[in-house]
Amino acid sequence: MKHTLGFDPRDIPWSVHDQNWPALPTTALHSEQLRWVFKNPPVWTPEVKREPPIGQRAPQAAAVLVPIVMRGEHGNEPHLLLTQRTQHLSSHAGQIAFPGGKVDPEDQSVEHAALREAEEEVGLTSEHIEVLGQLPSYITGTSFHITPVVALVSPDHTLRPNANEVEFAFEVPLSFLMDPSNHRLHHWENNGVQRQWYSMPYRPATTHLPNASNPETEYFIWGATAGMIRNFYRFLLASNSL
After folding, report:
1. Measured in whole angstroms, how far is the alpha carbon of residue 128 from the centre of its chain?
2. Strand pairing partners for 105?
3. What is the 8-class DSSP label of residue 219?
4. What is the pTM of this model?
5. Tell me, which fold does domain 25-240 have in CATH?
């Protein structure tokens, strides 16, 4: 998996950088607790705010949906829905991402843009979505100013991935992603520029989604997507510490 800078991010040295922070308890990930946190946000600072710039592209507003599918008999087994982008896209091709994209002039808000993109990319419609709130903007090296819109998703939805943009969709248990022992921090220097990013490689035992790839495949979540997940962890950690 080559990046636009000409390297494979899997090959870059990494360390676990958890500061002895704990994995979040399952109770912190239940729907009622997530609703409460967004209504009563803690005082916190996002850890990952922006990447070193690549080129001179003008800033572009973007939005992604952070879809938490409430699985389990009582909705107490939340999973994060992600996509594998197709190889021919002009930006972030072949990478794992949240459903999302540019904010169009016709969009009424970043929330509207995130919902529109989720429906266009994977067929996830608004009647299955309950928006909780937003996380701080994340700025990519390619100058996308991304607003993550966090939402609960009913497990009753049916996905219809757009083959032009999405190779497949899959889910990762939120408990795995909210455990900092699964967060790898990579460091790399190129042409005098220091770069670092998180990755969260995940190898599923099973999958809920018919369009996912072989269950033995490792999903390499990294870059902007991993950075926003790390910020989500820090947001919930700050609330859990109150």
Report:
1. 19
2. none
3. B
4. 0.90
5. Nucleoside Triphosphate Pyrophosphohydrolase (3.90.79)
